[in-house]
Amino acid sequence: MFIVTHKNIFITISVTLVLVSVLLVSVFGLNLGIDFLGGSRMEISYTVERPEVSVVQSAIDPIGIGEALIQPSGTDSFFIKTRYLSEAERVAVVSALSANDTQVAEKSFTSIGPSVGSELRKKAIMSMLFVILAIITFIAFSFRSVSRPVSSWKYGLIAVVTLLHDIAIPIGIFSLLSYFNGAEVDTLFVVAILTVLGVSISDTIVVFDRIRENLKNQAFPTFRETVGRSLSQVYQRSISTSLTVIIVLLSLSFFGPESTKNFALMLTAGMISGTYSSIFLASPLLVWVEERQNRKKSGTN
109-133, pLDDT tens digit by residue? Predict the structure, then answer.
């Protein structure tokens, strides 16, 4: 009952974290990758000492490919992000960097046209909206037998509120990575968001399902006590399961390949915020809604 009793504190913490995340995104923004903007990105490694960024910039300026974003990678490589490059322009860049007996190796090259990037951006947005709509529909249908004291569609609405909380916090953290570390929003970013949505809603449904069963069995006299007792029955399982996954993700973040570190970090942040919201936000919001309904019925504020 501790969580329900102090629900206003936990709801305030969640609101504060979401507002901080929105502020971070507003101030630092998100660095969209070529997956959504279109363009080319290559990774160049040096067999000898890696030069300064200014040296690499000076080498490719005469080619006339426009502005290039050059970011160090590891101890011997650079990521070079440019507009969409043709095959001839790609070869010209590698040749320019190999001038004066400088030994370089092209480790990877990715190129996406602007129209493809725009299409991917639209599909990413549509997929997230579809997932949210499907979640509302599923919960409203699954909890259709629970109409009192809180309607089934309100369970779905509260679930969506918690989902927005769960993705807002990782996105806020990612905006810091974008600003200070050059992390890019790519398809892995979208996969991470969708994964967080799926895992988070699964945890929330476990809690809601226990509340539904206790309501059906009329196990406790009031809705407030029903929610509180239901939480006490499932929170240890939720936390234990999430901790197991978080440990694996943290290992991947610190010891995994460079290409998946941001992905693992996003999932870690999403798992933590999702576990928190399913226990400390979703259920307290149910009690808050029920108490608000009672106040309206009694004519008090």
Answer: 888 776 666 777 788 788 778 877 8
Q: Are 85 and 228 members of one domain?
A: no
pLDDT digits (tens, 9 = 90+) for 286-300: 889 888 887 777 766
The two most distant CA atoms of the chain are separated, in Å, by 84
What's the predicted TM-score (pTM) here?
A: 0.79
First and final C-alpha spacing in the chain: 24
Last residue of a domain, one of 76, 96, 112: 112
Domain end: 112, 143, 177, which one? 112
Rounded CA gap, 208 and 161, in Å?
Answer: 14
Q: Could you tell me the CA-to-CA distances from 254 to 183, 208, 261, 271 in Å, in that order? A: 16, 34, 7, 17
Q: What is the DSSP letter of 76?
A: T
Do 74 and 140 share a structural domain? no
Kindly state whether residues 127 and 206 are assigned to the same domain. Answer: yes
In sequence order, what are the residues at sequence separation of 6 or more whose Cβ sits closer than 8 angstroms to the Cβ of residue 82?
A: 39, 40, 41, 65, 66, 67, 68, 69, 93
Structural domain tally of the chain? 2
Exposed e or buried b for every residue in 43-54, given b needs 16+ CB within 10 A? bbbbeeebeeee
Q: Which domain, by its residues, includes 55?
A: 39-112
Q: How far apart are CA 184 and CA 278, in angstroms?
A: 29
Residues 152 and 235 in one domain: yes
The confidence score (pLDDT) of residue 151 equals 77
Whether pLDDT at 171 is above 90 = yes
Secondary structure (DSSP) of 246-270: HHHHHHHHHHS-HHHHHHHHHHHHH
Q: What confidence tens digit (pLDDT) does each residue in 223-270 have?
A: 888 888 888 888 888 888 888 888 988 888 888 777 788 888 889 999
Note whether 18 and 79 are same-domain residues. no
Examine the domain organization and report whether 76 and 13 are in the same domain.
no
